[in-house]
Amino acid sequence: MKLLPFRVFPLASVLLASFVGLASAAPISLTGQILGDPRTGNFHDLFIDVTITGDTTSNQVSWKVDINTPNHPNAKLDEFYFNMIGLGSDYSFSGFNPTGWDINSPASSQGGGNMNLEFLFEALDPSGQPHADDVTNTQDLTFTMTKASGNFLASDFLNAFSSCSSDSEMPCGQMGAHLQSLQQGQSGFLVGNYAVSSSGGTPGSGGAPSSGGQVPEPNSSSLVLLAMGLLGASFWARRGAAAKL
Fold it and tell me: How far is Cα 104 from Cα 96, in angstroms, rounded to an integer?
């Protein structure tokens, strides 16, 4: 008895493979704006934009720290601070631009008062020669972050603890920065938190939310049900064809 070929089975296999791929991959796209300095007598027009991109199938994400403070054209980054879920030893860093910058853990923050819970990491130009190029309004700081065990989730950032200053005028935050060379020779401290990008991932899963006006893609549940239905149709069609022989 010879079974007749039926073309639904390969299609179902392709759909199941697609389901596996969709279930395992989701983009991570986080942003955050660090603002300062909120303290009386300090400049309040300091801004740094932070962008983090990657996906949940990888143990690496890319960071960009962008000073966006046009009222202080000579502003430069002294140190950038941030927290993560876990320990400092859970992460490593590479690919710095400007070359020569580095990240230490734990941080020893400057200019923001005493921290009752210090930041986990600090990015800085280490002391000594040669000096790295400054991070300014026209020169971003970028680097790659690698997770030692497992792949990244958006919750690794969004659920990180907040560091708080002993200065009552300074809010708590998951990120911070110390800017130098402001107008009148002042410096300032900035604080902020991670947020989901308007076009990026959702908390926890890192999945991208749909935006208005776009046709939604089929979700994974719909795809697996369709694939199982096609597999069932293939099975019964092959049995029916065999019974007629």
Answer: 13
